[in-house]
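Q: Sequence in, structure out?
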Amino acid sequence: MADRRTSRVLVTGGAGFIGSHLVDLLLDGGHHVVVVDDLSTGRLSNLEPARARSGDLLEFVHSDLGRWIDGEGADHRFDCIFHLAAAVGVKLVVQDPIGTIETNVHQTSAVLEFANAGSTPLLVASTSEVYGKGVNDVFSEDDDLLLGPTTRSRWSYACSKAIDEYLALAHHEQRGLPVSIVRFFNTVGPRQVGDYGMVVPRFVARALRGDPIEVYGDGEQSRCFCDVRDAVRALPGILDSRACLGRVVNLGSDSPISMNGLAQLVKDVLESDSEIVHVPYEQAYSEGFEDLRSRVPDLSRIRSAIDFSPVHPLHRTISDLARELQGASSRG
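A: Exactly. Output:
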């Protein structure tokens, strides 16, 4: 799509954290972008800079995605679709498993049918959560998935996104739909909020206030964090790449850091006096909550397909997020 400067693009969930950064990128490329978002977790303020500078190139629709597709959206046609709408965040998943499952599965099914009607190239956002509690040191796209029991609502998000992937791949195999699936690994950066359990904005906000930085469990669990501005740059390339067609692609950083290390890095970057304290999982979430000790992506597939290489180091991401949070606080 890089060569089609007048492309008409649909971004579902485009007012969200990742979606709004993708919208910025697409508009900067001269594309006409339609965003459909119910603002359940997205924020209209995420689109304000784009709306101010892009004029008629950006169209925002405040609607439930399924209703829009069945209603006024039925007659719309697009050159490509980025499906980012989803229920996200561990805390939200634990609090509302019904909404998580229904939102993720029903909306993705509706988007797949919509895209299939016009054979529209589609990118479906998934998550590293689908790997569940696998014991591998590094996770590659064709590894087995290992989820916890159905009595633990924590795994409902992973299960719902796995179903999304099955549906997307089935549409490709049975109907020839040009679809690619991206498994995001811990994407972070400006516009991300800690309301739904996102760890980096939660740590940064506490450090800025001088409050204790709460690390769940023993803090030795590790994750790999990728700046959202690096992640979204990869998405058009994945959609265009024949090597990614009908396949799952990991997207993220492969440089792990422990939660204890992350808390200390936030303290150092922001020169904060906040104390680092440990909170049991049972207190933070619920009895019997399960977490992975480590989650590192194998990035061989994406690197061979589009030469992916993140450029934003984690300390810069922390600084940029802190600057945004301070600006929001000063504006009241």
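Residues 97-117 form the longest helix (21 residues).
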